[in-house]
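From the methods appendix. Each design record in this collection lists the tokenized structure first, followed by the designed amino acid sequence. Records were kept in a plain field format so they could be parsed without special tools. The example shown here is representative of the layout used throughout.

RECORD:
FOLD TOKENS (283 positions):
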């Protein structure tokens, strides 16, 4: 199994889409920096006025960790789902398109082991990308904006009765790391779903577009005001609930429910992918 995972990792490593996404992330950070400089803290003034929250020298909280937290949201909610769906969609359907999959499974090896090795390879690549993106966000932010000993974390859109959390630099960094690890686990569920559709379709583009569409449809539905009953179970909602780590005290019960939902998504679709792959006629 470990040799098969290493083989899958070698195939994923040479794909050009990895380097395209790395370049896109750097371009995104550059745009974020330009936006920060052009705004000059004006969004803090709006926050101070609408939320009745007053602190002197709010611009002092525009430091590197604040920049990293702001950059984390689109990085892991938009860029990473697209990357994971593209990578996982290519592992089965893509190899079926170029004809290499039929030759690979024709040898004396279990189809279930082949698919599981692909899943674990996608997970490891996802974990590495999450660690890399999270680290680059912090490094770039600290290099250009420095670090403030007091961190201001805004949660105005989450309706938890907490609009802002003030904490020390160490605590903020620890919660940032926990959020990145949570995203790596949640994106694994998306990878399992993509593997399932990659086993159903014979084209990589069909599997990738299907999963990306499902994810963003779920994201839009979760934002609608009349979806309170189903919102906690939607894929995008449980995937993007890393903001729970910034609440004080930590809502452990809610966090465990989200992890359980992600585990069910992962196990259910991975089982479906294994069964489909074992029954599939590889042409």
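DESIGN:
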């Amino acid at each position: 199994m470990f040799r098969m995972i290493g083989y899958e990792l070698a195939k994923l490593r040479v794909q050009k889409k990895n380097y395209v996404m790395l370049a896109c992330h750097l371009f995104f950070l550059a745009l974020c920096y330009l936006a920060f400089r052009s705004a000059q803290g004006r969004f803090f003034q709006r926050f101070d006025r609408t939320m009745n929250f007053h602190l002197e020298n709010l611009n002092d909280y525009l430091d590197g960790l604040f920049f990293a937290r702001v950059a984390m949201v689109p990085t892991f909610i938009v860029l990473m789902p697209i990357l994971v769906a593209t990578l996982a969609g290519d592992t089965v359907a893509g190899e079926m398109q170029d004809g290499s999959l039929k030759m690979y499974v024709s040898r004396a090896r279990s189809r279930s082991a082949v698919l599981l090795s692909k899943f674990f390879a996608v997970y490891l690549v996802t974990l590495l990308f999450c660690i890399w993106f999270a680290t680059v966000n912090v490094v770039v932010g600290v290099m250009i904006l420095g670090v403030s000993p007091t961190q201001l974390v805004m949660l105005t859109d989450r309706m938890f009765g907490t609009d802002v959390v003030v904490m020390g630099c160490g605590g903020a960094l620890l919660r940032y790391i926990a959020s990145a690890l949570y995203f790596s686990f949640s994106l694994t569920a998306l990878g399992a779903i993509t593997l399932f559709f990659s086993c159903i379709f014979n084209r990589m583009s069909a599997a990738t577009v299907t999963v990306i569409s499902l994810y963003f449809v779920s994201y839009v539905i979760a934002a609608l005001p009349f979806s309170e009953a189903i919102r906690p179970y939607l894929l995008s909602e449980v995937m993007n609930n890393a903001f729970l780590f910034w609440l004080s005290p930590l809502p452990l019960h809610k966090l465990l429910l989200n992890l359980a939902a992600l585990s069910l998504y992962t196990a259910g679709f991975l089982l479906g992918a294994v069964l489909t792959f074992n029954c599939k006629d590889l042409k």
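APPENDIX NOTE: Residues 2-279 form one domain.
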